[in-house]
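Chain particulars:
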Amino acid sequence: MKTEFDLSTMKSRKNPYAAKLKKSVTMRLSEDVVGYFKQMAEEQGVPYQSLINLYLRDCVSKHRKIAVTWQSAS
């Protein structure tokens, strides 16, 4: 393998798999939740949407479940 390559002669092209890596979704989140992740993302130096994705990915990998119970109206 050559130790040096002339990358200026290469033709650029888009990654054909890029669209399959992530899916665009629309979510309605509370302002305080978005603010929390934006602040944390700023401290870490990453985009807040990436931070939310990392947090949700961690939940998936650890099979975390949430217990949702609704109070009955009395």
User: Anything to note?
Assistant: Helices lie at 18-21, 31-44, 48-61.
